[in-house]
Amino acid sequence: MRLDKFLSVSATATRKETARAVRAGQITVNGITAKRADMALDPEKDAVCYCGNAVFYKPFRYVLLNKPDGYVSATEDGRDPTVLELLPPLYTDLGLFPCGRLDKHTLGLMLLTNNGELSHRLLSPRRHVSKRYAFRVKFPLTVEECERFREGLVLEDGYETKPADIELAEDKKSGVITLVEGKYHQIKRMMEALHNQITYLERISFGPLALSEDLPRGAWRELTEEEEKMLLITAE
Fold this sequence. Notes:
The chain is an alpha+beta fold. It has helices at 3-9, 15-23, 89-92, 116-123, 143-151, 186-193, 225-234, and strands spanning 27-29, 32-33, 48-50, 53-55, 62-67, 97-98, 107-113, 131-137, 165-168, 174-179, 198-206, 209-210, 220-222. The strands form two sheets. Strands 5, 6, 7, 8, 9, 10, 11, 12 and 13 form a nine-stranded mixed beta sheet that branches. Strands 2-1-3-4 form a four-stranded antiparallel beta sheet. β9 (165-168) and β10 (174-179) form a beta hairpin. The two termini are 29 Å apart.
């Protein structure tokens, strides 16, 4: 792999930044100052330092994003801003994409990755990876309606959902819903089957990942090593 490619896929520097850093003598490979941005190296074995900081090769990246209102879960869209536009170019150049989708006006936790196989496994109906949502509806829900929700509902197109858990708050109009599938507009359509209407929806967890209060709306961070391990275990 070329040095400039290595630093690019490591989300460390663009190719232009790498060229400038090489000219300034700010990059070393195995302790030797790099002379060319296109020099070949082994990303698994060679030790690279950029401006005094060690750089480690990661073939796959995992980003947790707190999705704001109005952004679509896509890599590109001709009309609305996408969640990828919330990341700096160094990350968008990695080929990241949303693992699953949130509706345009649904908020909260999104996983972005360039690991297609892991994404496919996490979204596979056979694995029943849970997703939790904080919600609010227009009309109070009854005990009977919650029981129907937990048993699974028949939607307007005839699809019968899997059982979904619902924890209702004291106001009877808000709470937390847990799904093990992710059909198009599923929670919205399930509430419509109960003649109700979603007024607020936020995903607060996806499998082992949880949205923390210290990650503001629109902000993002890479997963920790422990979170990556738990994610890989969930996808096994």
